[in-house]
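Lab notebook page, bench 4
Experiment: in silico fold of construct C2
Operator: M.H.
Input chain length: 216 residues
Purpose: comparison with the prior construct
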Amino acid sequence: MAESNHDGKHSGSTILPRAATGLFAYFLTALLLMHVIRPDYTVIDHMISDYAVGRFGWIMTTAFVALGAGCLTLALGLLRDGPGSWPGRIGAALLIVAFVGLLVTALYPTDLETAPSTRTGDIHAISFLVNIVSILLSTMCLAWSYALDPRWRAHRATALAWAGLLIAAFIAQYLTLHRGAPYGITNRFFVAVLIGWLMLNSRWLQSSVNRRSTSD
């Protein structure tokens, strides 16, 4: 009976990182699919949010929901089994903020560059800023927390490298946010780095849970 209870606890702990990985994978798959079925949205001058406007827009909408849900499940997993320091807790909490922001992003589609400005598009733009700020701050807090926790210290160098790469990708995105610049490419680069970072954290979380289960 004791072994059964232990297995149940272990199974419950790994559900969250596994679910997060699956949700991030869905987002990535849906985004890649949109590049195939909407070739009229050129990658140079279209942000990924544009895919939610027009034909098959519901696919991109579900992708944003999946990304938000992935941030939520990863955050809950980190709060349960991640670093217990304040930077780790704050980093996880900021992922929950990103979850809320991404739901708003999904509910309020963007305005295309050639279309007139709308209230819906303005709300989308605000949610974009909330998502960016919360994710960047979360990344820095989590990377810091891994350096403070002996159980996660082995990931310190990799986490810091990914945090630096994500900040560099954000800077590239910011510097190209004007007409005529390849902002679509920098947007996709930022998203690619972000998904890599989130999936890496999900894998680290699952490995940490597995190690703790083995040592118990």
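Observations: The chain is about 75% helix and 0% strand. The two ends are 16 Å apart (CA to CA).
Next step: discuss at group meeting.
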